[in-house]
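[audit] Reproducing an earlier prediction to check determinism. Same input, same settings, fresh worker. If the tokens differ from the archived copy the diff job will pick it up downstream; this log only records the rerun itself.
[audit] input (388 residues):
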Amino acid sequence: MSNKPRKIAVVVTARATFSRIRTALHAIKDHPDLELKLILAASVLLDRFGSAAELIEQDGFTIAAKVFNVLEGSTPTLMAKSTGIGIVELATALDQVAPDMVVTVADRYETMATALAASYMNIPLAHVQGGEVTGSIDEKVRHAITKLADVHLVATKRAAERVRRMGEEPARIHHTGCPSIDLAKDVLEESETDFDPMAKYGGVGADLDLSKGYLMVLQHPVTTEHQAARSQAEVLLKVIHSQNLPTIWFWPNIDAGSDGTSKALRVFRELHPEAPVHFFRNVDGRDFLRLLKGSRCLVGNSSVGVRECGYLGVPVVNIGTRQLGRERSPNVRDVPEFEEQAIASALASQVKHASFESCHLYGEGQGGRRIAEVLAKTPLFFEKRLTY
């Protein structure tokens, strides 16, 4: 290997992306044969999502480039246009950074922009979390990126097998586990940590007493059902309001339909100012997992429910199609439709059950280190062909 460290550009585009890849970023930064070049893009740079960029810098990372590519307005047309702008602006950033390899994470439209820019610039592309199955447009995007990627860093054995069956060379497929589990492992091993998220992060809504238990909600719009985003959020708000339990509710992502979800939350706050619900835009990833660990149940449609909550043993009520087909642990109870009685029944059952045994489906807590080792040693390819 050359004495010169390999320059690795990692593109982080959302608060969830950073939390998911955080330990890998640290491992790359600390690896003697690697040089981290962190590129921030899309919603991670927007103040209305909680200034995640500031948290990233506070975590000790130097930002090599910032890419502003999001067009305001949560519609499929604007998602497509933001993807196009992302390709243009990311190409400029990659040209300036001149990395030896680009890392892109998961299955968002910004991830697709990263993959296309790197591919046309003949820069080897590593893809984290390929081979998984879900609902929404994410399914198409994820598998398209698999065919663009040169190195595959997958979270589960089944994901590795799917990538292989898509025609990818086995030597380029690495079962690293999901790096988000690394942080969950640290939090699970912590002694009980009490902190007041309202004092630390502000947010809006009722001043909650969390000492006797609370719920958490993370509900995103479904891109293929974006017109129903507001009505789906309204159904969930009715259920949560009927429980009269302290509830921490996180703001949705920027996908098509997020304006509808956000409007439902704002109207609820105006109509029910006394409701024991507190809304947050963003918190540090470790604090987020601490809140999860202490909660009685997570409700909504986030992949956090099947990844981190599975490891933490937190009960989950997963609603709708967004996580359809994703591998999951026994902690998850699925509700196929946004129907009040069905959601309330599932929630009551999960709260009564309390915690589940920790499941290591998505890894044992070594994902970040394994990813850095692969990036340091894997041959640098940017050409590929079908193997069948």
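[audit] rerun output stored. Observation attached for the diff report: The chain has two domains: 6-177+366-377, 186-353.
[audit] end
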